[in-house]
Amino acid sequence: VTDLEVVKAFRSRRVFLSTGPIVETFIKNEDQLQPMGSTVSLTKNSTITVRIRVQSASWVEPEMVNVFVNGENKKVFYLSKKDEEFFYEMQSVHDFWIVAEVLGSKSLFPVVPPDEIPIILWDSVTRSLGGRLVKKLDKYKELRPKKDIVVIPYALTNPIWVIVDGDGKFSPINPQPLKKSLQSSSQKTALSIDETFDLFEN
Predict the structure, then answer these.
(1) Is residue 20 within a helix (H) or strand (E), and if so which, with residue range?
(2) Radius of gyration from C-alpha coordinates of the chain
(3) Whole-model pTM?
(4) 34-37: which pairs have CB atoms within 8 A and are 24 or more residues apart?
(5) Pure H helices in 67-169
(6) 168: left (phi over 0), alpha (psi -120 to 50) or beta
(7) How many other C-beta atoms can be found within 10 angstroms of the C-beta atom of residue 167?
(8) Phi, psi of 72 (to 5 degrees)
(9) Pure H helices in 12-98
(10) Exposure string (b/e) for 61-70, b if CB count within 10 Å is 16 or more?
């Protein structure tokens, strides 16, 4: 694989994130196979097939595949082989995006050891903020973050975007009210010190 091929894949959004599993998604409609990162136009009520392929090395043990459509988990598949394909059929009723998520529960050790760097140097932070806050936090020791992270199999594809209504614009149902949430959060930019301590009192 050349540098230019990598750049081309990123620019076309045909990428996925992974700790080990290799996953690909395609949408098949009328003998055309569209990969992840594509924007596909379909007629309403078309029957489409989502094809998912998962591959993994001998030391990677993914266990399941979740298929998300517009953020909802529509289908779960369970893996039994190191190289396996799954097919999910659905109707194109409205605009949607679709991704595949691959999960496993077994550690990738010893090939990938646990990350021993603390997520946050909790004790150092609380000491620097003063004894008052340390005492407040003593009640919440169980909420302290772990100081090591066990790496397990995980992968997530980029979406495939599907336009159904024929207007050429991607408009999925139930879009997140991003603008509204940003406005509400911007009304209060910071907590006072007393308000911060009150969070630990209540």
Answers:
(1) none
(2) 23
(3) 0.70
(4) 34/160, 35/160, 36/99, 36/157, 36/158, 36/159, 36/160, 37/12, 37/13, 37/158, 37/159, 37/160
(5) 122-128, 131-137
(6) left
(7) 10
(8) -100, 135
(9) none
(10) bbeebebbbb
Q: Give the CA distances from residue 134 to residues 128, 147, 194, in Å, rounded to whole numbers and listed in that order.
A: 9, 18, 15
- Type of residue found at 173: I
Helix (H, G, I), strand (E, B) or coil at 73: strand
- Residue 50 has a CB neighbour count (10 Å cut-off) of 20
Is residue 3 within 8 Å of residue 9, measured between CB atoms? no
Q: Which two tokens stand for residue 197?
A: 């301590």
* Tokens at 15, concatenated: 């990428």
> Which amino acid belongs to residue 105?
S
| pLDDT digits 0-9 by tens, 61-95 | 999 999 999 989 999 999 999 999 999 999 988 89
Query: pLDDT tens across 15-30, in order?
Result: 999 999 999 999 987 7
In degrees rounded to 5, what are phi and psi of residue 57? -75, 170
Tokens coding 160: 């495939």
Sign for the pseudo-dihedral over CA of 182, 187, 193, 196: negative
| Spatial separation of the C-alpha atoms in residues 96 and 91, rounded to whole Å | 11
